[in-house]
Design goal:
Helix content: 25-40%
Number of helices: 2
Shape: elongated
Radius of gyration: 16 Å
Largest sheet: 3 strands, antiparallel
Number of strands: 3
CATH topology: Mth169, Chain: A
Distance between the termini: 7 Å
Order of helices and strands: EHEHE
Number of domains: 1
Strand order of the largest sheet: 2-1-3
CATH architecture: 2-Layer Sandwich
């Protein structure tokens, strides 16, 4: 059994309205040191198999087809076998 983590964020230049809203809220609470904030998604998966390279390839396919929107999002993945 392998464990995998996927981090999904908007690509640079894509507007992040949720991030902007949270940033404004932090500043209104007095946290002026926060200069920028971007929101993303984090997923944990359990995968059958022990071939790390093969699992990374399959997970990349999952990201491209369903988990992320490759037009506006970037993703990073980690697989621990």
């Amino acid at each position: 059994m392998a464990r995998a983590r996927v981090y999904i964020t908007y690509k640079e230049g894509i507007l992040d309205p949720q991030g902007k809203t949270i940033l404004r809220a932090l500043k209104s609470l007095g946290y002026d040191e926060v200069e920028n904030l971007r929101v993303g998604k984090y997923m944990e998966l359990e995968l059958a198999g022990t071939d790390k390279e093969g699992l990374e390839k399959r997970l990349g396919e999952m990201c491209e087809k369903l988990l992320a929107n490759p037009i506006i999002e970037d993703y990073d993945l980690e697989v621990d076998v």
